[in-house]
Structure formats: C-alpha cells, structure tokens
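Cross-check.
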Amino acid sequence: MKKLVFAVLLASFSAPAFSNECGGWQWVVPTYPRMYVYHNGVGDNDMGGNNPVIDSSISFSVRQNKIVASGSLTMREGKSDWSTFTATRADYTIYEAAPNCVITELYQNPPMVGRLYVPDAGKNNHRATSYPGSGSISEAVCLADTDGGIGGGSDSGQLYCEYKFNGFWAWLAPRG
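Predicted model, tokenized:
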C-alpha cells in the first residue's frame, strides 16, 4: 500500500512533455540551451580580462501551437579595444501542446520578457559566474572571459550564458 501511495504522489508532481488535457492552465518552466557568443568583428577576438559587459534578453511567444523563445546575447569588453561577441537564437521551441489542443494565452508575472544586464563581469574573471536576471530570467550562469582563449587568445565560441527561468502559465483550449 505504501508503494502505491508513493507512486500516486510521485505521479501527481511529474509533468509530461505535453498534456492531452485541454481546457485549463498548464504550468511551463522553460529550458533553453546554453548560448555561446562569437566575435562580431569589433576589436580583437580576446576578451582580455577587460571587465566584460553582458547584455541579454529573451522573450516568449506562441507560434503554431508551440511556445517559443527568442533571444540575444552580447558580451563586450568594458575598455581597451571594445572586443564584442554576439549571438541570437530565434523561435526555439520550449513547449508544444498536444495535437488536440491550442495555446490561446500565456500568463506570467513578471512579464514574458527576461533581461540580464551585467555592467562589469570582473577583471580576469575566468570562472562561470551566476548573475541575477529580471523579468522571466531568474538567473544566468555566464563565462565572460577565458584565460587566454583557445590557441593563444581567441574567446570566440568559448564564452556563454546558461539561463534559469521563472515559470509561467499557458491556457490550453480544445482545438476546433
């Protein structure tokens, strides 16, 4: 009997990839792959420990019965030659409703847009570091500089942010 009760409790806390239930709110906690930045031609291709500035935003929307995330990330030296690294990702699927459902509304407080802004990620900070976000981004872990980069200086493709999000609600209505 104890095993059955435990299994029922466990099942009540587990959410499937999508729900076949329509006509109600579905709690969604987004996941988003690590976003790597690449040198965009401004300055050299080494952050050089020059107090990087990190600026990122990610928004959520409904596209063809999916919830998608679109985001951008920029890391720029805070001085010296202003070396800049950027990345964008559009329409990354974070949730898909069952074929018999349609997503009609998203609700989150704070809003469906997240922002991360770090005015100074530190001089020679060669560690992945956690920073607080705002809006839908609860926090991000970013590596904004390496110790010399690959092959004696290239940080391109090595720097990244990994995001954690606040969850939100999606209204699922029966299709048709």
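The longest strand covers residues 84-96. DSSP finds one helix and 13 strands in the chain. Passed to J.P. for a second look.
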